[in-house]
Prior knowledge:
Number of strands: 5
Shape: elongated
Strand content: 15-25%
Largest sheet: 5 strands, antiparallel
Radius of gyration: 25 Å
Amino acid sequence: MAKVELKQPIVDEISALINGAATVVAVDYRGLTVAQDTELRKTLREAGVSYKVYKNTLVKRAAEGTEFAALDPVLEGPTAIAVHKDDATAAARVLAEFGKKANQLEIKGGVVEGTFYDAEGMAAIASIPSRDVLLGRLFGSMQSPIANLARVLNQIAEKQAGPAEPAA
């Protein structure tokens, strides 16, 4: 078998992984201990993020003709990719949070919803809360005025009713 034929299943695997993904983040993992890498993988798995190390040339080949081809400039040296299909900020957020504990982990760049971001851009995206947190904040801010109105109306109703008579 030719080398290309042997590598094609891996290229297909990468294509399937990134196809339809909301975000793909490239990271340099050099310097992480085995314990740190294990903890990172566990944390990413719990967040629903796929994390794999592939040869850069195979990632480039799999990304050809897709929006993820923009990753080519950062695919140099040891690189792992973190992929999330739904949440555009999850991978960047988890990697940035873990990077605070393990300074060796470096986000090289990523593609989020079709747009390439360098390391600084990915840091900004990592600071965006998750969709669930944002929805919670939105509903909380919508609920607050309604709750205040209900409290005021209740106080007005209590004043109009007058003091309650003691039970005999």
